[in-house]
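Weekly puzzle thread! Below is a chain. First person to post its structure in token form gets bragging rights.
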Amino acid sequence: MRSENLSIILVQPQGPINIGSVCRTMMNFGFTQLRLVNPTKHYKSLLAKKMALTAFSVLETALIFDDLQSALSDIQIAFGTTRRFGKYRKNFFTPSGAAEKLRQTHKESSCALVLGPEDTGLETKDLNLCQHFITIPTHDAYKSMNLSHALAVLLYEVSLKSDLGDKGIDPQPKKLARGDEIEHMFEHMKKSLLNIDFLDKQNPEHLLRTFRRLFGEAGLTSRDVKIIRGMMSRIDWTEEQRRKLTNVHDG
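Winning reply:
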């Protein structure tokens, strides 16, 4: 799905600050198609502009409609956001599930995320115009979300499953060292640490088990193993030089 094929529809938004925040959220994730159904007459006020900042262009080009049916007239797939359950319970998507459904739609399909008024949410008559429903699982102690916050959750999930998600910075899985590399490292470590009396000669495995746990949780790569063995080799060399000096002085 292309970003230009997804419209954000706000039904009877009451606060210009919220509307400005929605514009800003949309621009954060690369979406610009905004539709307003019977908005407050102050929807383009200075408050909205201050909140939208450079995303005010989204509001300037927003399409205005008298009712949701008109706003959806050219939309093929509409997702209504709500916490009203009842007869819709079996048809709810989580934000992630809705994003996956959007990802599966044809690239040319026109889609919309529909959000209701800040105080009441979408009415049943509005939900009846949507093909799918989304709910954000908020805590029961305070279920209602700010309009732009709810939209941010939705667009974040949509972006993860779009081309934008491919630009993420999550680290790639690293190639771990082989078992024989790890065991040779521990053999070297045991010898080196025994040599400097760091390990108990009677029970050297006691501390080595801690190192095994720490390195096991970290997940060592071959490069990591080489660095650790290099450090052990340096310890070996330093201890060898120390003993030579000690023997010279003793002699």
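Puzzle host: Confirmed. Bonus trivia for everyone else. The chain has two domains: 3-167, 179-250.
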